Structure formats: C-alpha cells, structure tokens
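Holo prediction. Input below; ligand is thymidine-5'-diphosphate.
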Amino acid sequence: MATKQKIQFVCQECGDSFPRWEGKCSSCGQWNTLVEEKVASEKSKTATKNLFRGGGVGGVRPGPIPLNQVDVLAETRRMTGIDEFDRILGGGIVAGSVTLIGGEPGIGKSTLMLQVALQMAGAGSPSLYVSGEESLEQTRLRAGRLGAVSEHLLCLGETQVETIGEHIQAVRPSCVILDSIQTAWSEESGSAPGSVSQIRDSAAHLITLCKHIHVPLFLVGHVTKSGVVAGPRVLEHMVDTVLYFEGDQHHNFRILRAVKNRFGSTNEIGIFEMGGSGLAEVKNPSELFLQERPEGASGSVVVPALEGTRPLLVEIQALTAPNGGFGAARRSANGLDQRRVALLIAVLEKRIGLRMFDQDVYVNIAGGVKVEEPAADLAALSAMVSSFQGVAIDQKTVVLGEVGLAGEIRSVSHLDKRLAEAARLGFTRAVTAPWQKNRAPAGIKIIGVKNVGDALKALEIY
Ligand code: TYD
Ligand code: MG
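Structure of the complex:
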C-alpha cells in the first residue's frame, strides 16, 4: 500500500511548522508566511538532531561526564590578514566554526568572502569557494579585479549539498564558503528549493560535516528589507556567528557587524570601503566621515557616536526651510530615527519657544552612516537650531548628550572613549551633560550644560 506523503505548513520567517494553513504564524506573528512543504525524511531529521546534540556523524553517543574531565581543546584560530574581519570574529577564524554572513544583494558579500578565501588559500590547504549564484567565469573575473588569482583557491559551481560535502571531504580545505545558502538544496529534504526546510536541511548537512572535520564554514545569505536573513532566521540559531554586512548603495562605506558570536564579542564593527579593486579596510573612519565637512556652514555639527565599542565621529546636518503654509510641515531624517527628530522638534517648540511648526526640517548624517543611540540627540537638535538661526556652530566643538522631554541633558556612556577620539581629530571643546566634567581627556574642554537652553547658549546659536 502506498503511504500518503505527509505535508506541513512552514513559516518562512521563523521556520516553525503547523499541521494546518493559517493566515498568521502563531509563533512569530508574521502574516502570510506559511507555505506548504513535505515533511522531511527521517534521515535528514536525524542529521539535524545529531547536529544539535553536538555528536559527530553516526558516532556513539557518550553519557554525562564531569566537566573537569573534558579535554581542554586549544582553540585554534587562523588570521585572515584582513584586520577588520579578524577583529569582528574575535581574533581570527576558529577551526570548525560556522559563520553566517547576511546582507542586501549587491552590498559586497561575495566580494568580501572571495577576499577571505584568497587570504586563506595556501599551499597544502587550499580554500574552497562554492558558488551557486554566479558562474565560475564570473567568479574568476571578480578575483581578477581583486588582484590575485591563486592556484590554491578552488572554485566549485554546485548547489547540491551532498555533492558539495563529498568535495569538502576529498579536498579538506582551509575554509569553505557557500555563496549563497539560499541556492543550496539537499536530496534528503523533500521541500521546494529556496524554502525554509530546504535551507535548514542543506545548512544542517554542511554544518554537521564541517564541524566533524574541523573546517570553518561561511554561509552567505541574502537579507530582506526588514533586515532579517530572508527566510532562514532558523539559521541564526544553528551557526556560531552571525555577521551583517550593511551600507548604502549610494555610498562606498560598508559596515560589518557581529550580531551573534560564540567566539567573541558582538560589539565590534568593521568598516570597509568598496573600491575598484574590492573592499579596502578603513582604519581611521572618523577622518573619512569628516573629510567633506563644509567650513563655517550653519546646520552642521559633529557628534562622537559609538559603534559597538568603537568611537566614530560623524557629521549631522540639518536644514530648516519655511514650508510656505501649505499643509503639514515635512520632517525627514536620514541616518537618524525619524520619531526621535520629531520629539526633538517638540522639545524645541515647548521648552525654547522656537516656532518650528511651519518649517520643513531635514536631518541627515553625512556618509550614509546610521546613528541610533540617543547620545546624538543634542547634536541633532543643535544642528536644527543652527540652520534655523542661520548661525554656524564652532568647527572645533563636538556636541553629545541625550535630550529628555523636560529639555534636560542626560549623560552618555563611554564619554572618555568618545572624547579621546574627538581630541585625536583636533576637536577642543565638548558640549555635554555636566555630570562627567572630570572625565575629559587631554586637549578637550568639557562645557557642562543642564538643559537645552544652556546648550544653545554655550554653542552661541540662540
Ligand atoms: P557583490 O560582492 O557581488 O555583492 P553581493 O554578493 O552582496 O550581492 O558586490 C557587488 C557590487 O560591488 C557591485 O555593484 C560591484 C561592486 N564592486 C566594486 O565596486 N568593486 C569591486 O572590486 C568589486 C569586485 C565589486
Ligand atoms: Mg553575491
């Protein structure tokens, strides 16, 4: 008697499965994400189970043992030589680690991974770049642009993970890059290519294998507009490290951010610049972000922001213009939170008495960077007032502080680190909350201000 093929409905966002179709996933609350899929075969389920148990492929399962009798494995790491990349990983690539690199299409994931593969390619241990998206010729072309076509970098145009696995076992590479996980498919999974089950099963197969033979694995994944890796959010739980590559299509800067790292901190970011010959590391980002700053223009101010543990000086620009009394005034924020800007405008209206309701307000961070911390509040507010009044803020002054609803200025974290970076770039004055006056590094004078009114006076713009 033929057995009936079992089906299930799998949420393409969170990967949870249900016996019946529903309009809304009851696990993650997303609408219209349930897709019919065949239930995975017993074989691939076992593989996935083994993975999460940490067991090898078909090994004997050990019982519990005292922790102090567990062998101390020296964590072996290998540097890629790309400092920004090594730092994000926590100091090089750990043997047998699995890393997911997410990012929007065209941001530079393939370029970065090819550069990593080139660095990891050496005599005796080649690196393996598996491309399911581009032809080998395209990859060759790209490698040519990057300046090095190594004989130790092996390329494979394959999407079926069982075959990829066989090659990995045969070659024993120094690292494997799968570009991208969304194109991979597994024989054992009965679901359609590109579906969550297919991605999960394919990843599980390769992760199990690479962990077993201690080969580092990099999975490239595309990201949807909302900022999650398309479909396989489940992947985030299966891998050791999740990196996001972000940036603006119209700017050359790219920021690599760790959102999960079992082998290091998640606070680190790496900054790259896309150029004619691939991604170049940016060692002194503040200088780069400030180099095009206009001199003596109103509406421009510098804030020492913090990206992870790294201080980053960015220029906030504001422009206010009367809207001519037609409809509601426009408020547009680029690189800053729009709601935060609206709140700052309200504070200006209420606490200072500035007439902003008939003004269109545009606030922008130069260079395509995003600053989402409240430490940039006072700078954004000062830039708006500076533009409104048509009075420039002193070039050598940085402004930082969170603005409360009562118009009070609150202190920011890691002030010393931020100000040290400002001092390094030649700034001499910082306008901020008064509570941390004693923490100024050499070369910087802190002007403590209790509220917005005091701040605007100190900046001589109101
Ligand atoms: P790519 O790595 O293909 O992005 P992803 O894999 O994330 O989709 O990067 C593509 C973009 O990078 C493309 O617009 C061309 C640009 N690029 C350069 O500007 N310089 C270079 O040296 C390379 C290789 C790409
Ligand atoms: Mg690509």
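The longest strand covers residues 310-322. That is the main takeaway for now.
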